[in-house]
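Readers outside the structure-tokenisation community will struggle with the description of the input data as it stands. I therefore recommend that a typical entry be quoted early in the introduction. An entry of this sort, consisting of the sequence and the corresponding backbone structure tokens, reads as follows:
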Amino acid sequence: MEEEQQSRTLQRRKIRRRRRRKRIAVFFITVATLLFLVVGGGLTWAWSQISGLTNDTFKPLPREISDLRPDQESVNIQDDHVSVLFLGVDSREGAVSGRSDAMILATFNRDDSSVKMLSIPRDSYVEIPDRGSERISHAHAYGEHDLAVETVENFLDVPVDYYATINFQAFIEIVDTFGGITVDSDISFSEQDSEHNPDAIFIDEGEQELNGEEALAYVRHRNTDGDLARGNRQTEVIASLINEATSISNISNYDDAFKSLENNMNHNIEGFQELIAFHSYASSLDSMERFQLEGTFERIDGSEVIVIDDTSLANARLKLRNHLELDDPEQP
């Protein structure tokens, strides 16, 4: 009887450990795949897979801590509220460079394990350090993640503690790995494919299943309804892919998802222990607050850009700074 009780206790402990591993890995790929990619985990081999991936794709920022944290010497994921900038770039397999077609800043509050996610339109007209005023998507093309992080910080007045950049090849492969995603499109439209063939992909209006190529077209399209509507589609895809990736039926596909990331992403999350510290947020991913900057289209120097509304910018700045529990710099 005693041996049977001990066996049950050990079994319960194993189940709890497996659940914890799944939460950690699910959150990591939300970070690792930037805006849309949660590949999860739940098997013992996931520990070594994630650890190896973090080492192979690690590229630090040229600083220890953001200048917007003047009262801190360091940021610790285990103890601090932190932010992560997710960047999606249009580059070929094996390269993580070029303009950022997707840019999302997420903040994580340690006290209540909540997540907020701000979508920044790629055509936002902002000041890029040493380059002047241009579309914010150009920052990554000029200086990769270093300049993209600096530009976002200057624009939002919110510290960027971590970043994760992924190219669209990995996005396509991971969507296909999990058997596609479900979306509900407000409009029908055609869009180029990943090889830039015009009108190669057609999206119907209404609910439908999309494969990797179709999902990429869905999150990139803006010709019909603009950059702001595209931001809504990107956050919709995040939620849908989280749902697919955490499905028990997709456990056998995690290994392929990790392989898709190996040569197609960069990040500055140093070491496996930092990733473990993120596990408490995994249960909040399906209820995270998603919002985006609003603005108006204007033609400046021959290019159509989005001039972000001052009120929208101020509200987003305040919401993210409050979530990080930072003092308002405009207050005494």
